[in-house]
Amino acid sequence: MPGGRAERSEARRYKALRPGDRVAVVAPSGPADPARLEEGCAVLRGLGLDVVLGQHALDRVNLGGPGPLRDGWQQLAGGDADRAADLASAWSDPRVSAVVCARGGYGATRVLDHLDWDALAAATGPDPKMLHGSSDITALHVAFGARLGVTTSFGPMPAGRIADLGPAATGADDALTRDGLLAALFGTGQDVLTGTHALAPGRAEGPLTGGTLTLLTALLGTPYAPPRAEGRIVFLEDVSEAPYRIDRMLVQLLQSAWLDGAAGVVLGSWERSGDPAELDAVFSARLGPLGVPVLAGVPAGHGPRQRTLELGAPAILDAGALTLRAPGGAR
Fold it and tell me: Nearest-CA neighbor of 25 among 96, 110, 111?
């Protein structure tokens, strides 16, 4: 259904996993380190899941296409069509209960044109499977949410933070990340995320939308542009972006009218993105005029604390209480 939109109706929530369910790990973006990917897959197996790798999950090609790999060149986890084929195969396989992306990086937007959206819609069914990932995977969250009408899972990935959650992981950040992942995967209960400070007071309810800021702005003006945030709670985060670049991207969201009518804004982590005080000033200047609650410092996104968010599902933001209540329970 290229060009089709499902955002006007309530999204169908993905089905929670059970021990023994099969999870397909695919790599729609950058290449994963094989050893680190195996560590992350071992963590998922330790949760009782049957983990299988996509056919091209360990492929590696240059950004410009086939040819000898060169040190220092940006690379992708295989060609665009191959990465898309792994994703489509996993989504369409009735034996697979969840599709988990190995890592972010770059390349997910290039996959979108290679997907048969009619076939993916036909394979979705009344009880959608989970699509899980973060960062560059924001492009897939947006497209799957809009075109297939499903909720998706934004959180840590096997070749990233999940790889750190093995038996030796005993830190508070590890526990916070693991607990959030378990709640998202197995529907163990409502998750409450606590922010550090409010930039604008108030309370809001609505479906959760958003993701990594760079990807949201990259999709504007394309056939895969994110549906406008009207009536929704917007989650934003990013990594290694200077405050002036964040300001510029927020201006782009505002000038495109994407933020018009948003119910509230939740700001996650902004790892390696400059002075936190300067960032707060930017967020207050750009988002304050919206007149909606803005909660900052929510532990989701990049960084050591990575809670998992169900994009498209109803949520409650209480900036005064510094909380974002995300849905939970069996689905």
Answer: 96
Which tokens go with 294?
A: 């803005």
How many Å apart are CA 98 and CA 226, to the nearest integer?
23
Please give the Cα distance from 64 to 259 (Å, whole number). Answer: 34
SS3 87: helix
Q: Alpha-carbon distance 158 to 101, whole Å? A: 8
Cα(153)–Cα(38) distance, rounded to whole angstroms? 21
Prediction pTM value? 0.95
Q: Give me the amino acid identity at 214.
A: T
Give the bridge partners for 221, in sequence order.
none
Model confidence pLDDT, tens digit, residues 209-233: 999 999 999 999 999 999 999 999 9
Token pair of 114, please? 């290679």
Portion of the chain with pLDDT greater than 70, in percent: 95
Separation of alpha carbons 262 and 206, rounded Å:
9
Cβ within 8 Å of residue 42, ≥6 positions away: 166
User: Annotated active-site positions, please?
Assistant: 135, 237, 302
Q: What are 49's two structure tokens?
A: 């899941």
* Amino acid found at 181: L
Structure tokens at 51: 């983990």
H helix or E strand, kind and range, residue 45: helix 34-46
Distance in angstroms (rounded) separating the CA atoms of residues 287 and 294: 8
